[in-house]
Amino acid sequence: MNIIALQPPNHNGIALPIRVQFNKKTATMVACTVSGNLHELGIRMVADLFEIDGWNTYYLGANMPDNHIISALKENKADLLAISASMPDQVTIAAVIIKKIRNDASLNRIKVLVGGYPFNQIQDLWKKIGADGYMNTAKEAIELANKMMLPNYPEPV
User: Fold this and answer.
1) Residues 157, 1: Cα–Cα separation, whole Å
2) For residues 33 and 116, what is the distance between their CA atoms, to the nearest angstrom?
3) Selection from 70, 43, 78, 80 nearest residue 59 by Cα
4) Residue 6, SS3?
5) Statement: residue 40 has pLDDT above 90
6) Residue 69 pLDDT more than 90?
């Protein structure tokens, strides 16, 4: 993937364009917030940074109903779902989505990363709802997701 960026301004104060090339990966991620969550800035930035890292990225938006998430995972042949929950009551919604993924034979290989305020406050909450990982920052999410795509990474239980 190529992205056009601006170099720092030269001695004349002119910022010239530069082409930055990223290695494209074969992994695909779907990212969104759970139903009822309108706070999408964080997960949007995560999706954008995954794309810069070379992932095939599908950002669904905020307040995404379960059935739309499940459909998007199937349609895009996703390897990873990144979901955000901003409020404690949305953790239950995330848990339901994860359970649906785990119970669907065509989806149960998908890795699930979660993030958001409740996961920052309660240690290992992500484990309790069946996620494969937790992201506090986009950098952590990308590093963990890249490890998850390695062939010897543990499968979800």
Assistant:
1) 34
2) 9
3) 43
4) strand
5) yes
6) yes
